Amino acid sequence: MDGLLACHNTLEKKANLSKAVTDVQKLVEQLQSARDAVADNPDMAVLHMAKLKNPVKQSFDRIEEDLKEVNKGLNQYQKALKDKFKSSTLPTAGVGESGLLSRQAGLVDRAIGMHLLREGMFGVADTFVKEVQQSGTRGSVNCGEEMEGVELSSQQWLKDFTTEQQMTEDKYDEEEEEEEEDDEDLYTDDEDLYTGLEKPRLQERFADMYHILDALRNRHNLLPAIDWARDHSQQLESRGSNLEFELARLKFIELYTSSSSSSHSPHNDPFAGPLQALEYARTVFPTFTSRYRYETSSLLGSLAFAPALASSPYKPLFHNPSAWSDAAAAFTREYCGLLGLSEQSPLYAAVTAGGIALPVLEKVERVMAQTKGQWTSVNELPVETPLPPGYLFHSIFVCPVSKEQATDANPPVMLPCGHVIARESLEGHSKGKQRVKCPYCPQECLVRDARRVYI
Amino acid sequence: MSEMTSTKLDPDAHLVLEQPLLRLPHELLRKNLKSAQRQIESTNKGITSSLASDPKKPADALASLDATLAKAQNLKRKLEALHSEEKQLHRQQKARIDHLQSLHEVQSLADVKYDSWAHHRLDRLLVDYLLRQGYTASARQLASEKHVEDLTDVPVFEECGRIEQSLRTGRVQEALSWCGENKQALKKTDSKLELELRLQQFIEMVREGDMGKLMEAIAHARKHLAGGTGQDVEFGLRAGGLLAHPPDTLIEPYYSMYAKDRYSHLAQSFLKTHHDLLSLPSQPLLHIALSAGLSALKTPTCHSVHAVQPSTLTGAPVCPICSTELNELARGVPYAHHTKSCMEDDSVVLPNGRVFGRERLRILNEKLGVRKGRVRDPTEGMSGDEWNWEDAVVRRVYIS
């Protein structure tokens, strides 16, 4: 990088057009004074003109020299660029003119649209959806025929993005100019989208999420989050989520400590906060006792230490600086989880993982190109692409016999001794016999006793 | 497990996609210099020749000097404009170098600084993708909201898109003037784009068919299509042949020459020429990075019929490939290669065949509020079967 930076500095400081501009200015001055001289003394015109020839030529030579220096600077920079990027070709990662992603532009667009929403960039998402809609109508006019079916289905997702406000606007438009048919097509099944809670309009959902998050993070206002958690109490519970209780606990703590922080309360009663908290606990905690008996009683126990909380065993619970951001993160996870989405943008995760994996793939491509080799397996990458631990989302089972990853077609099976191998390996190992010895321990078993396991 | 995961960051290898990022401002700087050269050359020629002419009368000399002066001043204005363009490009170039340099200061992939760098990169790649798809307004808005204007090339693509669109709607003028601006560079790469465009003009004249237009067409062909040597002769011959065939002909190659979709072919040819000239990759970089990432993350489980539904959470974060956004998209890409199993420690299997880490299973059951000594499959929540831990139904599995 240093080489490039040095070359860049040369360009910025020396090898640029500023000298040429100065020299042209000098030329202008030369011509100007010659012109003035001729105007003052017309008789000497021919002489002045003749005298001018050489200096003008020199000026242009100088200007050309100036440009040569710029050119030299650019050449140096180019060389530094070459040193930095040894290979001039980019890795392809299997992407070609007719590559998978080019054929599925609709799906890529959808992923981007959802990414924009979950990053909270509603303005950009709005513009984006409009532009995709426009290009959709444009595209089907231009290259109709074969693509039409694909185009239509790949634009289905747009429905999830339109907000109610846009829809009412569009409806209004339709009343005014009824021949606009595209609009009708896009919104024919408005009704089910309105009524069906299962089919959320993503834009609204994410706007809702950001609204709640904003309250939580920036204004330390728990109410919107608590309301949401109460509305989705059952779903959350069936997911084994603690969110509702976590929020209630945070609320309890907030009430508990509220009097000590609010200086404007008229009579500074040290027990006002704990009393409020107690009242809150009485109304809310009973619903939690079956699952959180220990936690609730512990919270209520803290009331006994009210004036001297800082020196009590409850201190870590009450002085947790990351409590709010933890709550916000937990909320995001659950909110996205209920929509079947991961908490971090998958597009970000995938592109970042791609950035990490690409150097390896690039090397493979280079070697393959040299040896004119081919990937032996179409379904699987030819090399390991190590990712940081946070990028492992599933357990991986590689059969210890065949070294192949288990798939639906070749699933893992567990022998009665507890050892797991792939089904094809077991079949190969048993060679059609009924009984088989485990490849990893002395135990023998019947082939039919091997059980499919789900990893 | 340690071999499969790595947080080591090798910045140089990590930048394999970033060459075009630095290439483009450089190519534009070259183009800028070429324009300056052209301006100076033509002014030089003009001034030298007018100084060489011997004026007979003093008044003529004065007029000639005035004209020369105007030329020089004009040159100065042009150079100043190019110089300010150059400054802009230098600023962009610096911003890009700094952006890549900042990666060299990150030690590990686990560093939060890497996270923010990668976010920055994603924004950049997205803007690039949006521009290439013609979603210019979104691209512009995203670039300004994310402050990546200097790292992206909105104006370049906007101009390129404008010309492409004009070709698609049947106008060649914009593309021709672009060819004029880049004449030298196009000659160097032996590009046929201009000839193709001239041929298209010829085709349109012949299509009209009346005598006057045909004469005009022939003159046009003489001027633009006949001059070539080698392969270029082909163009003249094809033009000649076209004269003998009416627009409704079914004979090739004239049928396809008259075809309206020749314009989209021209638009594509223009895009390719344009991108090659500026060292822009023909595919959006987002495709390359995304495709590699989908594969690197994908496991056979992601599209398995037995996959756990993302909405039934088991405490694990939802896999990006299983998430709605990418699941369909990832269906066709190969999955990552692994040579070793990667399982939770102390795995146990439930009677229904599902495998869990013992500790996680215990915690999940506790969260579900399952009674002590009993166990459920957390992926089924409270709706599935419940078993006794101790009935030896939950047993250890050995996975090597």
TrEMBL record, chain A:
Pfam families: CTLH, zf-RING_UBOX. Residues 171-189 have a biased composition (Acidic residues). Residues 205-263 form the CTLH domain. Gene3D superfamilies: Zinc/RING finger domain, C3HC4 (zinc finger) (3.30.40.10). Involved in the proteasome-dependent degradation of fructose-1,6-bisphosphatase. Belongs to the RMD5/GID2 family. This is GID complex catalytic subunit 2. It comes from Salinomyces thailandicus.
From TrEMBL, chain B:
Keywords: Coiled coil, Cytoplasm, Metal-binding, Zinc, Zinc-finger. Residues 26-95 form a coiled coil. It comes from the Eukaryota. Pfam families: CTLH. GO terms for cellular component: cytoplasm; GID complex; nucleus. Its main location: cytoplasm. Residues 156-213 form the CTLH domain. PROSITE patterns: CTLH, LISH, ZF_RING_GID. GO terms for molecular function: ubiquitin protein ligase activity; zinc ion binding. Residues 319-380 form the RING-Gid-type domain. The keyword Nucleus does not apply. GO terms for biological process: proteasome-mediated ubiquitin-dependent protein catabolic process. It is found in: Cytoplasm. Belongs to the FYV10 family. Involved in the proteasome-dependent degradation of fructose-1,6-bisphosphatase. This is Protein FYV10.
